[in-house]
Each structure stands twice: as C-alpha cells, then as structure tokens.
Amino acid sequence: MKEHKKQYWKGIEQLTEDPHFVAKAEREFPEYLPVGEAAGGDGSEGTTRRDFLKLMGFSVAAATLASCETPVKHAIPYLNKPEDVDPGIANYYASTYSEGGDYCSILVKTREGRPIKIEGNKHCPITRGGTNAQIEASILSLYDQHRLVAPQIKGKKAKWNDVDKQVVAGLKKAAASGKKISIVSHTILSPTTKKVIDEFIAKYPTAEHVVYDAVSYSGMLDANQECFGKRVIPSYKFDQANVIVSFGADFLGTWLSPVEFSKQYSLGRKIGTSRKTMSKHIQFESNLSLTGSNADNRFRIKPSQEGVIVAALYNHIAKKTGAIETISGSGLKDEKLKKAVAFTAEKLLASKGSSIVVSGSNDPAVQTLINGINFALNNYSSTLEMGLPSYYKQGSDQQFNQFVSDAKAGAIGAVIFYNVNPIYNTAKGAELANALKNVSLKVSTNIVKDETLAHVDIAAPDHHYLESWNDAEPIKGHLTLGQPTISPLFKTRQVQESLLAWAGNGTSYLDYLKGNWKSSFYNAQVTTFGFQAFWDKCLHDGIYQHGGMFAALADSVSNMQDVAIGGQVFTPNLSKAASSIAKNYKENKKGTELVLYQKIGIGTGYQSNNPWLQEMPDPITKATWDNYVTISPALAKSWGLKMEEGIFTKKAKLTVGKKSITAPVMVQPGQADDTVGLALGYGQKAAGRVANELGVDAYPLISSINNNQSLAATDQVKIELTSEKHEIAHTQTHHTFMGRKTVIQEATLTEYKKDPGAGRFHPMIATSEGKKKPSEVSLWKGHEYPNHHWGMVIDLNSCTGCSACTIACQAENNVPVVGKKEVIRRREMHWLRIDRYYSSDADENDTTGMEEPSANPEVVFQPMMCQHCNNAPCETVCPVAATTHSTEGLNQMTYNRCVGTRYCANNCPYKVRRFNWFKYHDSDKFPDNLAMNNDLGKMVLNPDVTVRARGVMEKCSMCVQRIQNGKLEAKKQGRKVEDADVNTACASSCPTDAIVFGDMNNPESQISKVLNEEQPERVYHVLEELNVSPNVFYLTKVRNKSKNGKKDA
Amino acid sequence: MQVTSTVRNPLVTGGKTIHDITEDVCRQVEGKPTKSWMLVLSMALGALTIGGYALAMTLWEGIGMWGLNKTVGWAWDITNFVWWVGIGHAGTLISAILLLFRQKWRTSINRAAEAMTIFAVICALLFPVIHTGRPWLTLYWPIPLPNAFGSLWVNFHSPLVWDFFAISTYFTVSLVFWYIGLIPDFATIRDRATNKISKAVYGALSFGWDGAAKTWSRYESVSLILAGLATPLVLSVHTIVSMDFATSVIPGWHTTIFPPYFVAGAIFSGFAMVLTLMIITRKVYKLEDYITISHIEMMNIIIIVTGSIVGVAYLTELFIAWYSGVEYEQYAFLNRATGPYWWSYAIMMTCNVVSPQLFWFKKIRTNIVATFILSIVVNIGMWFERFVIIVTSLHRDYVPSSWAMFHPTLYDMGVYLFSFGLFFTLFLLFAKFFPVINMAEVKSILKSSSEKRN
Fold first, then answer.
1. Best residue in A740, A799, A862, A899 for a mutation probing chain B (most B CBs within 10 Å)
2. CA nearest A902 in B: which residue?
3. What is the pLDDT of residue A617?
4. A172: Cβ–Cβ under 8 A, 6 or more apart, which residues?
C-alpha cells in the first residue's frame, strides 16, 4: 500500500507560510502566553512548559501554605533577661496572707514571673509551714476575670488622677461640713497600714476607722476588755493543753487562726514510741464542725443551752478550785447534760494549768464565764497568753452599728469601704444600702466587682495581696512582711497608697513601709546593723520577731495568772454575766434553732468566686457548689425525708423572725436535734460568674445577742419542708465504712497504751501450708528499686480533714474544675480526696444497717490518692502500657499513650483514677474552670505539669515533677537526695504534718524512721489482703477515750 | 419429589424437590423488595440515624455524654459489647460444631445464623473502639504494630489485648467460613440471573464456581478445616472476654467460673437471637418447610441446657461467695441481690434461669409464639446479666467512699440503638440480597432415591 502522506495545517498561516508564524512554529505554545511575563521573562524567550509547571507548583504550594492557619503564640521572649528569672526555674518569695484578719506566712512560687503556687513558710513560728484551703486557693483569685481592672467613677472607667481629685474634693467637703468620714474595714493586721489610717485621720479630723468582721468576735473582745482591761484576744497554745474543751469554736476550721491552731492541736495529738499520750478533746456544739468531728467526745447541744452549760461548768470548777466565786443559776436538770458537764469538769480539773477552754460564742456573758473557767484552772500564761495577745480579730459590732445609724441619720459625709463588702456580708446590708443614699462620697477599694460596688460612686481598686507590699502583726511582737510577686496585672493601686494620696502624702507605700519598719522596728533592735541588711533579711525570711525571742516578749503583766490572783487584773463582772445568761439561755427550750456557720472552703464568702474552693468538697458534708440547711437525722425521719443516693433532696423554707429563705436540706449526722445549720458565704448576687446565685444568702438571718452579732438564732425559727426538689453535688454519698477493718483501723488510747498495734487488722490468706500473710502469697516477682523508693505515710490521727492538701494538689497539678453538674454525675477530678467516714450503731453483720451513720457519729478522715502499688492492678490491664511502674516505685501515667479504656480505673481497688470525660480546657462548656479557659486564668497553671487532653486517664503522680526537680538539685550539688529536696504538694501544705513523704530506701529519711522506728506497729496498708503492696501507708486512728463508739460519760 | 424415611422424620417437609429449594430461596433474591421488607429496612435505617446522632455526639464531645462516672467506668458500653459478642456465638457453633457432629438439621439455619454472628460481631467490635476516650488511637494502638516509638509495644498482660486477638480471629474465621458456604449458592443465583448486573455481581461473588466434582470436594475439605478451626474459637472468644473481668481484682469480677459460665451464656443468648430472627424470616419468606418446628424444638432444647448451666453458675457464684469467707465477695453478691440494683438482678434471674425452664413443656417449646417471646426474654435477661456483672460489681467495690450509682443518659441508649440499627440494616440487606438458606447443603439432605416415594 502506498504510503499516504497527508498534511494537516495548524492554520491558514502555515499554509501561507506567514513569516510571523514560521518564527514561532517550533514552539509548543506559539501564541502569546502570559506566564512568561509573570515568570519575569519577556514572553518570547525562556518561557517553557517547565517554567509554567514550576510556577504553578510554587503557586499551589504557596496557596496551600497560606491557607494553613498558623496559630499565633503569645510567647514573648525576654529581650533583656531579668536578673532573677531563669526560664524553667522557680523562684520563691516569702510573703504574707492576711485577709480580714486571717493570717498565714507563706512562700509564693513563681515561674517566669507568674505566681503559681502558695506554700507555707516553715520559718514562721505561728503557722509553721502550714496552710489551709482558702490560702492555697487564693493564688487563683489573683487571676480572676471578675477583678476590677481600673478605677471607676460612677461605673465608668476612670483615671487615677480624676479619682484622686474627686475623692479629695469630696473628703474636703465632708470635713468642711463637719460630717464624719468613715473608713470601714475588716480587721487590719498591718501596723503600717494602721499608721497610714492614723495619718489619714490626722489630715481629716472628722474621720473615723470603723472595724467590723463578717463573722464577729466582738463579744469576746468586749468580755476580755472587761475581764482584763484590754480589748484583745489572747494567744492560744493548744499544744500545751492536755484537755481541750470547746463550746462551738471550730478552731481547726474557721475560728480565729485555724492554721496555727491545727498545727498546735496536732502536736498535742501525735503519738508514737516516744510519746504515748495525747490531749483529750471535748466538744459541745450544734452543727457537726470540723473540730467537733475530730473531738474525742462530742456532745450535741442546742445554742440556747450553751450559756447554761457553760455556767454549770463554771460553777462546778469554781466550786472545786475555789479560785473564783460561783455565780447564781438554777443548775442543770437533764441527767445527760449533768453527766456531760461533770465529765468535762473532771477532765479539766485533772489537768489544771494545762487545759484550755474556748467558745465560739459572741456573747460577752458566755465569754466572761469561759475566761473565768480558764482563770480558775490556772490556764492563763500556760495555754492562753493574755500578755501576748493576738490581733486576728478587732472588729466591733457596736461601732459598725453606730456607723449604720450615723449613715441613716445623715451624719456621715464620706465613706471609704476598705476592702469590705458590707452590703453583702452583714445582716444590715439592705439597711446600709438605703442609708448610703445619705452619704455624698462613697468609695470602695475592693479588688473585685461586688455587691457594694453598685452602691458607691468611686471604685478605687486595691492590688491583689500577691501584687502588694504589706506587713502584719498577728500576734504581738511577731511581724511579717508581704511582698509583691508579680507586677500589678491591672491599673489598680494599693489601697494604702490611695489613702496616703488622699491624705496628701505622695510617698509610695513601699517607702512608707520601709520608713515605718526603720523607725518602729529596726531602731529598736541591735542584732542587725544597717537598715538595708535588716530589711533584706526580714524580706527574705518573711518574718521578724520584734524584740528578739518570742516568749520573752510578754509584757510586764505576762504572768497574768500571778497578778490576777491578787485580784488586780482579772475583773469579770460575774453578776452581770449570770443574769444575762439566765435571761438568754434555757436548758430545755422548745422549738427549732438555727446555727449559722462558715464552710472550710468558702468561709465568709469573700473568695466565693474561686472555683477551686467551690468544688472543694466540704470536709464534713462532702458537698460542693452549694449551701444547704443541715438537719438532724431525727428531723429527717419525722419528715420521711431520705436523701436518695445521697444526692436528691428537697428544699425547706426556713423562717427566722420575719425573714425567710428557701434552701435545700441536708441530712447531717451529728446535728443536734431541734437545730439546723446553714453556711454563710453563698447566695451572692455580684460575686462573679462562678459564685453568682449559688446557694442562699444567710447573712440576713444573723441575729444579735447582748448587742453583738450572733450566728445562732434561738427564737422564732421555723422550718418547713417544701415539695421543691434539689440535687446537692456530693463527692461522697456513702458515709460509713461498713465496718471494713482493712479500710479504717482505729483504736482507743487506752488500748494503744497497752498495745501499740491495737486496732490493727491482720488479714490472713488460707493456703495449703496454713494461714499466711497476704504479702507471702504472690504471683509477682516484685520490682527492684536500686536508687529511690518513694513512699508516703499518712497519720489518720493527725489528719483533721481540713482539705488544704486537696487544693494544694489541685494548684500544683493543674487539676481541672468540672462544675456542679458534673460533680452530681460523680466526675470530680481531684487527685487527692479525703474520705470521711461516720461510725454506725448497727451490728457489723447488718450490711443495710451499717449504711446508716449514728446520730452522733465518730468521724474519721482518710486522705486517699493513688497508692502507687508495687503490684499495681491498673498496670497489668492497660492494653497500651500507658500506666507503668517506675524504678523508683511510682505508678506513672503516660498521658500521650493513653487511649482511655478506663480499665485501669475499674480495676483500681481504691478508685483514685480520674478520667477526662470531656475536654475541660479551652472549652466553652466549662467556663467555671477558670484556670484553663481564659488567658488570665491560665497564668496559674503549673508549666511543669501537662494539662490533660480529653479522653485520657489521670491520677496522683506523687508530684513527680517535684521529685525530678529535687533529684536535679541534689545532682547539681553532687550529693544524695535528702528529705528537704523533695516534698509533695499535699504533704507540704498539711497544717498538721499528717502526711510524710520520702525515700524509703534512705534509712535517714523521716519516712523510714516513721515506718521502722517510731510507728512500726501502727502502720497499715488499706486493703492489705489484696497484696497490691501500696507505697502509701496509713497509721491507725487513735482516740483518747476508753472505748470506741461509746461515750465516756 | 422428596423421599421420606420411615424411621426418621424428614428435615425438610412439604415434599420439596431440589428445584423447589432453588426456587424458594432464590425467589427472595431475584424478586423485587417487598413492602414489608422496605418498611422494616426504613425502621432499621431510622434507628441507625438516630443512634448515629448519639454516636456522633459521643465521638465529638467525649465519653462524658454517657452516664459513666469515676466509680463506674464501664456500663452500657461493655454490657453491649459482651452481649453482642455472646449473640455472635450461635452461628459458628451451629455451622462448625454441628457440622463436626454431623447434625444435618443445621443446614437450613446455619446460613442465617452465621450471618447473624458476623453482624453481631461487627456490632460488638464497635463498642471496644468507641467506648474509649480517644477512639481514633484505639483503632490501632492495641495492635502490636512495629512503630516509630522505639521499643514501645502493647501490654501483653492486658486482657484487652487478648480480646483484640480473640475477637479479630473469630471474626475473620467466621467471615471466611460464611463466605465459603455462600459461594455455591452465589453460583446458583448467577446461573439463574436474567439481568446483566446481577450476573456480573453474583458472578464475581461466586469466584468462578464451576460445580465440578473437584470443586465440591475442595469445598467440603475447606468447610471441614474451617469448622475445625472455628470450633475452639467458639469456646475461646467468650472465655477471653470473660477474662476481662476474671483477671481483675474487683469482687464480682474476680471469679474463676467465668469462662465456662460466659461461654454457656453466649450460646444461650446466641440461640435465642437465632430463634428471634429465624421465626421472623421463616414467616416472612414462607420457609416453614425448611425451618420446621423440629428445628425450633432442637434449639429450644439447647436453650434449656445452656440456660440451666447459666443458672447453676449463678448459684455457684453465690455459694462460693459465702464459702470463700471473703467479706467483699460476700457483700458484692448480697448487694447484687438486695442492693440498689436488685431489680436488674431480679430481671436477670427471671429471664435467664426461670423462663427457659418453661421449655421443659413440649407444648411451649413447639409453640412458635411462645418461643418467639421467650427468645426475646432470654436476650433481655442476658443483657441484664452483663449489666449486673459490670455495673453492680463496680458501683460498690472496696472503698465505700467511692460507692456511686450509674444512670444511663440518652446517649447511652442512642449508641445501643445505633448497634441495633446497624445489625438489622445489615441483616435485612443480607436477607434480601443473599440466599438466606444454604441451598446446596439443604439439597444434600433431600433423599431422592432408595426409599419409598410419597
């Protein structure tokens, strides 16, 4: 076939051989291509298909890259590194926590300039390194979004200059008109601040300083004024007391200085090989308080009986000692009460001079008799020091009431609310709000937006205490300094500086403070030369003992007792007290009575916007996020009310006089019959997103006795159950330990003295070779711990249940807050919980009966966290080996490896593992988790601890980051790790030293000594028979009574 | 025409011929979907959609959507898992063990039973993945894969890893076994197919089956080998599932009786589920001559046997709890029977121990309606058995402070509904597009010579 040569033309141009065409004919794209130009060519040369592809490739890659959103990270490196800040290395600054008279000497841990954790200051002889939950949590309040960020005039942001102008003009006007200028504050511990206020008063002579306390000690102060001529509170030494009797004073929880008293109390209650005795603690109270739950004997009384009982005890002791005259009174008729008083008196008299009697009452009559009892028992100068007074509370109810009536009468021209919120936290809030209309200048220095803010013209917000300079004198001669640990976050100004400015003194408060310390303290001492050295030392230590030794400080009347015997100093008006008691108290008054109280976490409510504290289970009720009316089981029974699953309850209408509130009901074992309890600090309207509308406000229900605030209402109290349902978010809904001796092992002191191993339970496993200890029967080969073997011992006898450790752990380990709903669903995340068990009257074999706590139960607290088992059941079941055993005995979680089967949590006999059910961080669904859901809150996070993702398991790590840090520190110094290098957050926060952490491989460590020398008989493992071999040990609980579960009396 | 033995009752009634069998079975595959099928499928798809929403929300937000808590870490999720795995036991048991024992009556039910097994195992496999906090990792982290993390390996101590092996092996073998059985029938459908698509699809599915004697011989050998492989698996799967509990330290879980008890329970619930499905299929597809009353009776007898084994196991547990002298064990069982979840224990006891005993009465065990109702009752009971084991053991274990209650949320229920939707969707698709009765094998049990014609 002939080859067919067909020719195809590209176009007519080819046929005509157009020269323009021919020139480009060989090209692939003869026509004009815009790519060439774009590629920089001229369009004729060098633009090839390859270039086009390259260009396209680049464009696509660039477009792809551009479409990926680069997360913007706000990590700004230091341009000039501050001298003291090393990234990754924590700095500690000594400072002082003093809020409304609550005092603690602290160390603030800062990382990269951010305070992230509060620790106790071990140098402080008062708080001795302890803290409590409120103090631990205050670090989060620093980063509260609800804080005022700038001064305000009439609700609008303003400049400090304008504020000063307006205030000064207002003050001058008030002074000119002769009206009073009132500075209203809580107790101020700072001597320098008092000086500032004095200077202010000097400038404005009509000014007065009104001091009140939300929970008042005014009656006690008045009684002391009368008895001793000084309006102060003595310092207490619970550690020196062999017998402690408390009438409703919750001195381990909320009364005066709980950290200090917890420390002292625990010292008196420590037992061991070297000390086989402990103090006896008797409590009379209506609500079951933290202190009452730790008492050896607890008597339930109505508040209307308190005076009569105190009087009976007084007479009993006065008669026996003859040191003081008896008072008239009808005496007790009820046999039980008589017995209780006789029993108490007998114990007290047996420990004359080394006992202590305290009362939480604010009735001067009762306090007078309490003073009388202590006096008759020779306790002054041994367990109470009048010559070494404490200044924790200085408020005067009369003064505050006068202020309110002055304001009503229009006698006040200006008022400065110095970090107080009286509209909320007094019974007269509403009255005051009305009266404030008569005051022309109203200033508030509160750091947060609160109820009072709405009633003032000018907000001049103070710094947070962690941003401030300050000092404090909690006990005469004991001084502490507070220093800022971060530059002010907002445009706030320290309140003292504001007062100085308004008084026309332009010095900064730091200079003023230094000046005062120089003149008042430096000049009075001889040990340190040079003010700067003196200042540096005080600042470093955080504390300064004015006048040298603490004890030597007592003034000339230090030995009060001796002087008093001469009839010179102790001058109680006994007849007045007696008649007052006869009038106000009755032994057998009918009807319901109300006792208001403070919760351990929330207190008076000034930190109520702190989600850590809201989610902290109340040590007694184990409830979170709420307040409630606590009622006795007897009342619940008469109502037919049962708290189903421990959560579901109903609301009750509580009426006191003309006021009434509706609050959920909580059945509380230990609540005295015919009494109900209700916590203060809730029901706030403007406390911030966390606390608003949470619970009910109990402040309006506060009544008065002898012109002083009274937390007890004994008249016209009615409680009626409504049909309204409510759920209380409990973390523990089962209240007894079901007689399980492997969980709780306890003994009485009598038994302990006979046998230090009393109360220990020794489970045995039956084998073919007879009975064996669980540890002798094992499939496990065991692990080797060549270097360290970390362990922990928890003394159930020392633990008071205060929950400081829970919050310390939360702050240290970035534990999320999950909110009320999730707690109701039983999903709180705390790594460390405190199990609280009540005793039951039922027979041990009656498992249903055992579920019911006694009406007046014995209480035991058991801190429970990961037990770091050597034969850990969680480790074997994890399919991906996300939880493993370390060579140092730690059970460690690898969050990255965890897929979240929850098998480990199911197989944990202690139920200490916590699962991230949701994404708790960076989530709109958990706005209350302030520490993880806003940029400000996130500053509190510990950078050494991962914030856990959704779907992973977490649990106590024994603060592995602290262990690593301690090991590194020791390594740098080329020595072995010592006790001082490592401590867990829980152990270091504990005000009673109930938790001892350390290396069990080191024979010198404290834990080795406790386990092997001091307490070998008391040591036990929870659930020993499982032989999971925990590295957490417990020491038996020992009560100072003859027989457990029964009253001595 | 079928030939009937004088001594044995025929396994297939109605005088079916070999051609009748082909017709009866292929009719469903070749015909248009019936209205009732469409209705049921849309219900299944509805369940799948509603359940799918619950599942999607769970995956999106986290396991917190369910009612689990710090104390009860597993509840409906693992209950459903074990329940579905249990159901997935009958099919392989019928086709493998009964094949080895030459139980010819199995031929008319084994196909559907195996299909049910496979779908049940698919439903079961859903739960171990989605119940975890990070399911996207659970998909492959529990597999011992070579990885870039250095020496990181799975934890061979963990029963969950054993589970993974046990269930994946079981699933694979069951699937292959089922598919091998389908091949000759696919070929039949292929040969009868009138439209191109059917021909192509069934042609592909039948793997070029030619019906030669050699092919049949291979088919038989493979069936026998797979039956041999599958038989131990029937026992091993639930044994290993039971070890999830038995190897733990939780009272009520830590029980050596679990393996046999779980296997018996699984067969028990599996047969009940087979009955539930077969009674419906038989009615809807008019297969009464293939799945006869005697089939139902046989299966009911197995239900009595396994139900009684389960009952004995329950009583043994109670006895051992008392006999052991272990406080926690005793409380766990006392709490099961009298605690807050007593009702679930009562349901379990009634449904699993009492109700199957009714089958001792011939009237009841040969009554279709009674069997149908009881088959559902048994599966309700078996679901509660797992619920009782998992939830009531966990909710009150050692440390009373952590005792808690579990309340399911709508999402717990939704995900369970999803598994039902998935199961029934798959089963309905199977019933429409695959031959529900093994034609080839049923044909083999029709006697066609040597005996008297009727």
1. A899
2. B73
3. 95
4. none
Residue B65 lies in a domain: yes
Of B62, B331, B338, the CB nearest to A917: B62
Domain assignment of residue B9, yes or no: no
Collect all residues of chain B within an 8 Å Cβ-Cβ radius of residue A827: 64, 69-70
The 10s digit of each residue's pLDDT in B154-190 is 899 999 999 999 999 999 998 998 999 899 999 989 9
A763–chain B Cβ distance below 8 A for any pair: no
**Interface size between A and B, measured as CB pairs under 8 A:** 173
DSSP assignment letter at A10 = S
pLDDT tens sequence across A204-218: 989 999 999 999 999
Residue B385 clears pLDDT 90, i.e. is over it: yes
Record: contact A903-B73, CB cut-off 8 A: yes
**CA gap A206, A553 in Å, rounded:** 35
Distance CA A951, CA A882 (A): 13
Q: Which two tokens stand for residue A718?
A: 């009615």
Domains of chain A from N-terminus onward: 12-67 (no CATH), 152-207+395-519 (3.40.50.740), 218-391+558-574 (3.40.228.10), 612-730 (2.40.40.20), 746-1039 (3.30.70.20)
Nearest to B401 among A835, A900, A1026 (CB): A835
Domain that holds residue B251: 43-144+154-433
Distance from CA of A955 to the nearest CA of B (A): 11
Find chain A residues with C-beta within 8 A of B141's C-beta.
Answer: 879-880, 897, 899
pLDDT tens column, A935-953: 899 999 999 999 999 999 9
Predicted complex ipTM: 0.92
Question: Do A808 and A1004 contact (CB within 8 A), yes or no?
Answer: no
B213 touches chain A (CB under 8 A): no
Distance CA A987, CA A265 (A): 17
Measure the CA–CA gap between A1029 and A445, rounded to whole angstroms: 55
- Tell me the whole-structure pTM to 2 decimals: 0.89
Q: Is B131 in Cβ contact with A901 (below 8 Å)?
A: yes
Report yes or no: B246 and B256 within 8 Å, Cβ to Cβ.
yes
Average pLDDT, chain B: 88
| A951–B134 C-beta distance less than 8 A | yes
In a domain, B211, yes or no: yes
Residue B240's CATH number: 1.20.1630.10
CB-nearest to B154 from A879, A906, A1028 is A879
Contacts of B19 (CB under 8 A, 6+ apart): none
* Contact A738/B at CB under 8 A: yes
Q: What is the DSSP letter of A272?
A: B
The tokens describing A251, both together, are 């001195």
Question: Letter for the amino acid at A761?
Answer: F
> How high is the pLDDT of residue A44?
53
Q: Least CB-CB distance to B400: which of A736, A827, A1028?
A: A736
Please state, in angstroms and as integers, the Cα–Cα distance from residue A551 to each residue in A381, A385, A545, following that order.
11, 10, 10
- Contacts with A1049 (C-beta within 8 Å, 6 or more apart), sequence order: A297, A299, A336, A339, A340, A342, A343
Is A831's Cβ below 8 Å from some Cβ in B?
A: no
Q: Does B362 touch chain A (CB under 8 A)?
A: no
Cβ within 8 Å, pair A900-B63:
yes
Chain B, 401 to 420: residues with Cβ < 8 Å from chain A are 401-405
Asked if residue B7 is part of any domain, the answer here is no
Q: With bands split at pLDDT 50, 70 and 90, how would you rate the model's confidence at A556?
A: very low
- Note whether A926 contacts B: Cβ–Cβ < 8 A: no
Task: State the number of CA atoms in the 13 A half-sphere of A815 facing the CB.
Answer: 32
Q: How many domains does chain B have?
A: 1
> How many percent of chain A have pLDDT more than 70?
94
Distance CA B351, CA B168 (A): 30
Residues linked to residue A275 through DSSP beta bridges, in sequence order? A272
